[in-house]
Each structure stands twice: as C-alpha cells, then as structure tokens.
Write a structure and sequence with these properties.
Layout lengths: L1 H13 L2 H18 L17 H13 L4 E8 L7 H14 L5 E5 L7 E3 L4 E3 L4 H6 L5 H9 L15 E8 L4 H14 L4 E6 L1 H35 L2 H24 L11 H8 L1 H18 L3 H27 L7 H30 L15 H15 L1 H19 L8 H4 L5 H13 L3 E8 L8 H15 L6 E5 L1 H16 L12 H24 L6 H9 L12 E8 L4 H28 L9 E5 L1 H35 L2 H25 L10 H25 L4 H10 L1 H17 L7 H32 L32
Antiparallel strand pairs: 1-5, 1-6, 2-5, 3-4, 7-9, 7-10, 8-9
C-alpha cells in the first residue's frame, strides 16, 4: 500500500500540469454548483423520518389547515385591551396583517363570530361583536362580557386578564416577506400605551434562517484567518499557508457541490457543514507539508521530498482520514434527516480532503520554481525544545498523569448521569432578541405558542355521537386539570357545544345556565344542526360577495366553531393542548399521558357505541400531530440514535487502528486518550446544566474521529522510532519533537476553527463549536500527555526490532535523527 502511494505521488510530481489543470477545473465547477445551495427555513429536516406523526401531520394540514400560524399580539399597558382605542388599534392591526400576499386568513376579536343569546335560540351572529359595537347595536360593556364568556376566545384571541389580544394569522405559503410584513404591522401598532409582538413557528424558522446566513458570512473569513495564522506559526513561510488553504477550498467546494447535486439546502444542523469541513480538511495537508519540510533536506527538494513525505505520513494520514470519516459517517445512520445529511456530507468532505491533498500537493511540490512550494524547509524553534522537555517530564511523572486522567474520567462519568435532553431552541435565544421577547410575552398572557395536537379518527359521524363526545370531554377535562404541569389551555368541539348549551339553558332560566356537555343525543343533534346552518349561512354570504377581498378571512372566521375542530362528516375531531415553554422531557411525558388517556377513553366510547346498536362501529384511534409533537418525538429518540452511531463508530475506529498497527492492544490504547475527553466534556455539560441538544449530541461522533487522529500519527512515528532502535523514552521524545509539532498546530487549527462558532448568533451552533473545541483541546492533551504516559507505563513497543541501544536524546536541530537512508519505514 505504501509503495503504491509513493508511485502515485512520484507520477503526479513528475507530470504536474495535468493534475493542476484538474485542480482548477474542480475548483471552478464545484464552486459554481456550490453557489446554488440555499437555506431551508423549515423544520421538516429535524423530524424523524419514520415518525407516524408525519402521516398524521398530512391529515392535520389537509383537514384542519395545519399549524402554519403566527400570533400577532397586542398588549395594553393599562388594565384592559377592551377599550374603544384598544379595539380600534387591534382592528387596524388585523387589517394590516391580512394585507400581505401569502396570508390565508386572519382572525381576531374584531372579526370573529360569536354565540349569543337571541330571542328564540342560540345562533351564530353573522357579524362580529366588534362590528355590532361600531353599528351601535352593542355597548362596550356588553362586548366585553360577551367575548370574555367565549371559551374559544379566551386563551386564544384574548388573555384571561384582558390585557392582550391576538390576531391569529394562518399562512397559505412560506415567505420571508410575510414575516417582515407582519413585523412592520406590529411596529406600526406599537406606541401610546400599546406594544405588539409577533411569534410562532414560521417566525422561528425565518429568524433561524437569517442567523444561518449571518453565520456563513462570519465563519468563512474567521476560519480562513485561523488556518492562516496557525500554518504561518508552524511553517513561517507563505507556501506553508497557501497549500493547506488550497486543499480546504477544494474540499469545501466539492462538499457543497455534492449538497447542491443532492438538492440539500442548509438547515439548522447542516449550517455547520461549511465551517466543519473547512476545519477538518486542513489536517492532511498540514501533516504532509510538515513531513516534506523534514524529509526534503535529506532526500532532495521537489519530487523526491514529497515522495518521502508521503512515505513517512501518507498511510497514517489515510487511516486518520478513515477514522474521521467513520466518526462523521456514524451520524449518517441517524433517524433525523438533518443529522444524517450533516454526517454524510461531512464524511464526504473529509474523504475528499485526502484526495484533494494527493491531487494538488505533489504537482505543486514538483514544479521547478526555485521559490515555489519546493523551497519549503523545516525551521526549528522553541516548540521543539518545549516538547522534548515535556517528554522527560512525562517520563518522570507518568503515574500522576494517568491518575489524573482516571480522575477526570470518573468525574465526567458522574456528570453524564445528570445530562438532560433539550431541543427548545427558543429558550436558548438571547433574552433580548425580538423572537425571545415576543415568545415570552405570548407565553405569559396567552399561554404560549406551543401546542400538542391530537387527532381522534373514527368512522363518519363518530364525533356527532354522544359516546365519543363524552370520551373527548373526559380527556379534555383531565388535561384542563393539569395547569400545575404547564398546561395552559385545551380546546375542542366540546367547548362550542358547552357554550351553546349554556346559552340555551339561560333562555329557560338565567340562574340555572349551565356550561356542560348536552345530556342526550337528541340535544347534541339539535346543536350540530345550529352549527351546520350557521356554516351554510356563512358560505352563502361568501358566495354573494365573491369580489370582496375579505371573503377568505370571513369564511375562516365562520369555520371556527366547527370546521377547525371537527370534520364535516364527523369522522375526525381535534383536541388542542397548549403548554408553556417547558423542558422537552416534561412535554414528552405530557404527550404520552395524553395519548394513553385518549386511547383508554376512546376504547370505552367504542364499546358504548357497539352496545348502543352500532355493531359495525370502527375503533376511534388517537393520532398526535403538529410540528411541536414531531419535535418532541425527535428529542426523545435523539440520544438513543446518537448512542447507536457512536458505538458503531468506536468499534470500527478501534478495529481499524488494530489493523493498522497489527495489534489489538495498540488499538485499545489509541482509543483511551480520545475517549476520555468525550466523557469529560459531556460530564461538564451535565455538571453545568448545559442541555444535550440536536447539535451538541453530535459532538461525540465528530470529536471521536478527530481526537483519535493525533494518537494514530504519534503512535505511527513512535513505532518507527522504536523499530530504529531507540529506547521507549528516547522514542517518545523524538516523536513529540517531530510529529508532535504537526499534531500541535493541526489541533490548534481545529480548536480555533471550531471556537469561531462562539461568534454565532444561533445558540446550538455556538454550543456545538465551543464544546467540540474543548473536546479536541482535551484530546490533544490526552495524546501529548496520557498516551506517552501509558506507553511508558505499559512498555508498549518493547518488541520492536533493530535496536541499536544508543539511548541518545535527539538533537532538536537534527530534522530526522537516525533516519533510514532511503526514507523507508523499517
């Protein structure tokens, strides 16, 4: 394998123009393709690919319009929003919110229909209470009393304290101009004792897309600067900076070109792709260039030097590329599409970086320019002497070093037990961001924007039967009682029927008005008849006014009592449970309790329907739906999915190292310095209360492949030195003084590259970058301290042959002490 690699490098260095032409074509073609990659503002890539709630979400969107909803809320600084001025301002905000293209409907207190007490029977008013107020058919006090009595208004369109009212905007498509238009309307409505807020999933997507675009503009120049700085410190020559940057450019452009070919846009997770590939793709080129600077003075500059360099580190770099590939590749088996895409594309970028270095570096070193890349030479410095002294210090305190590592491992393990999963990105936003402020305000006054949707599916007519409605009432009542758990509001067709029953009983005796589910099937049929007539009347009004731009909004307003809560055929009912901004684990428990309670109660309803003579009645099946439900399911599955990938990656990496060194012992030894930092960082997260999120869950798989690279390179050089006859301490010193320099600077580049994420405005990206940088920093310390200590304690390499017994400590100014004359590895 090593001979084949040397022959390929020799051929490329001897005929440099064709491969360099290929490099230019690759950069141009891949760059053109990469420019077409956009930003995906949706959440779909975060949903589990096999989640049954995906199918329920399709039904939810088809039958009830889905949850593409934005709340535009108006808060009065005074005691109530229900004043003439407050309602006029809300009406203007409602009208402005409905003015933009892409808005399907807007409903607020100023256009919503209502159940009221007429002379003969309860009926749906053909105009809103606010319009009756404007027509002087109702006083402000009567309007306040009426809307405050409506269960579908309070907690949805009006806060319980009366200070906040909301315009609920339903979108027919996505578009950033819609969110900007609503925010403009909110700014116009703010002032003179009022403040408007805009919140909801579409707003969250829009803001995150903007953060992703901003990060891409910031990260690229900062990472380029970090790579340039580290390579300049290592090589102190211009070509030492330019060559790694060329390989980085080729790797990133090829990776993004593949993303374009596959039709993948950047989302909340794959936005990490560009900075990650930039950082990880520099390692191979740094090690090859470093090896060239050591080998060229001995065998000659240009082709001979680069051939010797690949002979020295090419195979080890191939294996480090493979281990990093496996680390990222383990993410490709994730059930979360965004993580799967990130893992697969990053693995491709890592693999391509080796190919890019192989195609680009030998031809450039082979060029005959006197001041070209061939002129690169090693320059000794303080780092070499420092690493030599480090080797002797480790030799004297090896047990202390290993003991410290074991202690860190124990503390980290205890911290992992405290780790919690959380994907509530809103809770991680800067407290003063517009979205965070708006979400907190809506959460405080209207119970939040997070809803658990439950579809209850039976046969046609099931939810016009008293048995099914009673079961739904019992489920809803059970979760209405869970206010202390964070449930703020529930609503369903039960609320409408109970309100009609309250008005009807008030006609008979106002003092005995009862808000409860009707007691018999005949009364329920009668109430549904009222609702059907009202809906038909609303449709007729819309047909008479087809040219009116407000028809869609009016039709949706007429639909509120029935069509947004139960299908026309009565086969599917919708139960909505709104919750505050809670931890993901708490929300998931509430969701599971909701499903279990609904399943049990619907089984009772099914049995009662069969007992009532409906022998062919189908069972009623609860199906959770909605984007918030899909996010909770992903959160629950995330740790298990990532753990499976990590176990597979660990086994493959340890096995590949054992194959490389032909020793299971060395395979396990190399994994120890790489594993300790991962345990330590996750332990730190557990102790400090940092949640395991979608992004931070990937740290272990990413860092494992990167962390083990240093140990492979150092072990490879150590084996060579032992085989050349050096004793263990001498071999460790030589290894750290030579290969340790490239390992040091490549790790510093990785650390600085990932640490750039600290400038991100997107919390998951920031946490991922900083914690990955910390993991790599600890893994570097493990490779430079723990690995040598273990080698010296365990006597690794004692079976090396061709010892000369010199025991001589190497001269730092000697680029290749006791090297084989032809650059071959013994």
């Amino acid at each position: 394998m090593r001979d084949l690699l040397r022959r390929i490098v020799t051929a490329l260095a001897s005929h440099p123009l064709p491969p360099l032409l290929l490099v230019g074509l690759l950069l141009a073609g891949c760059g053109w393709l990469a420019s077409s990659v956009g930003v995906d503002p949706g959440n779909e890539a975060l949903f589990l690919r096999d989640d049954p709630a995906r199918d329920a979400q399709v039904v939810f969107q088809d039958r009830f319009g889905g949850d593409e909803i934005i709340a535009v809320a108006l808060l009065a600084e005074g005691e109530t929003i229900l004043t003439l001025d407050g309602l006029a301002r809300l009406a203007a905000l409602t009208e402005a919110s409905d003015a933009g293209d892409g808005v399907e409907s807007v409903i607020s207190l100023t256009n919503a229909k209502n159940v009221y007490q007429s002379k003969w029977q309860p009926e749906i008013v053909p105009v809103s209470p606010y319009e009756e107020l404007l027509d002087e058919m109702m006083s402000l006090e009567e309007l306040s009393a009426q809307v405050s009595a409506e269960p579908l208004f309070v907690g949805n369109l009006l806060s319980e304290n009366g200070r906040m009212a909301a315009a609920i905007v339903t979108l027919e498509r996505r578009g950033e101009e819609i969110v900007e238009g609503l925010r403009t309307a909110a700014r116009d409505a703010t002032g003179d004792g009022y403040r408007a807020y805009v919140a909801g999933f579409p707003v969250e997507r829009y803001d995150f897309a903007r953060l992703i675009e901003s990060d891409q503009r910031i990260f690229v120049p900062l990472i380029v600067a970090a790579i340039a700085l580290m390579t300049a410190l290592l090589f102190r020559q211009l070509w030492g900076v330019a060559l790694p940057l060329l390989v980085v450019a080729m790797s990133v452009s090829a990776t993004m070109a593949l993303a374009a070919i596959l039709g993948r846009d950047l989302n909340a997770v794959t936005s990490l792709l560009t900075p990650v590939v930039m950082v990880v793709s520099v390692a191979v080129s740094v090690n090859v260039v470093s090896a060239y600077t050591w080998e060229s003075p001995r065998v000659g500059a240009g082709g001979p030097g680069v051939t010797a360099a690949y002979g020295r580190v090419g195979l080890a770099c191939l294996f480090t590329t493979f281990t990093t590939f496996v680390g990222f590749g383990s993410l490709a088996i994730s059930a979360v599409p965004a993580i799967r895409d990130f893992g697969g594309l990053s693995a491709f970028g890592v693999a391509f970086s080796y190919l890019a270095a192989l195609i680009a570096l030998p031809p450039l070193f082979g060029l005959g320019w006197r001041r070209g890349p061939r002129s690169l030479t090693a320059k000794s410095g303080y780092l070499e002497h420092l690493l030599l002294r480090l080797a002797h210090a480790i030799g004297r305190r090896r047990r202390l070093v290993v003991g410290g590592a074991v202690l860190l491992l124990g503390v980290g393990g205890l911290g992992i037990a405290r780790l919690e999963v959380e994907t509530d990105i809103l809770g991680q936003l800067p407290p003063r961001s517009d979205l965070a402020i708006a979400t907190r305000a809506v959460d405080e006054h209207l119970g939040g924007v997070n809803t658990l949707e439950l579809l209850l599916e039976g046969e046609p007519g099931a939810f016009r039967r008293i048995e099914a409605l009673r079961a739904l009432d019992r489920v809803q009542a059970a979760f209405d009682a869970r206010r202390s758990d964070g449930v703020t509001k529930t609503f369903s067709i039960i609320d409408v029927l109970e309100r009609i029953h309250e008005v009807k009983t008030a006609l008979q005796d106002p003092e005995k008005a009862t808000r409860a589910l009707p007691p018999d099937q005949e009364t329920i049929d009668y109430y549904f008849g009222i609702l059907d007539q009202a809906a038909a009347a609303g449709d007729d009004d819309d047909d008479d006014d087809d040219d009116d731009d407000d028809d869609v909004a009016d039709e949706r307003a007429d639909d509120v009592p029935t069509r947004l809560l139960v299908t026309d055929d009565g086969a599917i009912a919708r139960l909505t449970v709104r919750v505050r901004a809670l931890r993901a684990s708490v929300v998931y428990d509430i969701l599971q309790d909701l499903i279990a309670k609904a399943t049990a109660e619907m089984a009772v309803a099914h049995a009662e329907m069969r007992a009532a003579g409906l022998a062919d009645a189908r069972p009623i099946v609860p199906r959770p739906a909605g984007q918030y439900v899909l996010i909770q399911n992903m959160t629950h599955e995330l740790p298990l999915s990532q753990m499976r990938g990590l176990i597979i990656a660990t086994l493959v990496i340890v096995g590949s190292i054992a194959v490389l060194f032909r020793s299971v012992r060395l395979g396990a030894l190399a994994a120890i310095p790489a594993g300790i930092p991962i345990v330590a960082v996750y332990g730190i997260m557990g102790w400090s209360g940092i949640y395991l999120s979608t992004a931070t869950s990937m740290i272990a798989s990413v860092a494992l492949g990167l962390a083990v690279d240093s140990t492979i390179l150092l072990l490879s050089r150590f084996r060579d030195e032992r085989a050349a006859g050096r004793d263990a301490l001498d071999a460790v010193a030589t290894t750290l003084a030579t290969s340790g320099q490239a390992v040091t600077y490549s790790n510093l580049t990785l650390i600085c590259g990932f640490a750039v994420s600290a400038f991100s405005g997107f919390p998951p990206v920031r946490d991922f970058g900083i914690l990955t940088a910390a993991t790599i920093a600890l893994s570097y310390l493990g490779a430079m301290f723990v690995l040598p200590a273990l080698i010296l304690m365990l006597g690794v390499g004692a079976d090396a042959s061709a010892r000369d017994g010199s025991g001589k400590i190497p001269d730092p100014n000697d680029p290749r002490p006791d090297a084989e004359p032809d650059g071959e590895d013994p």
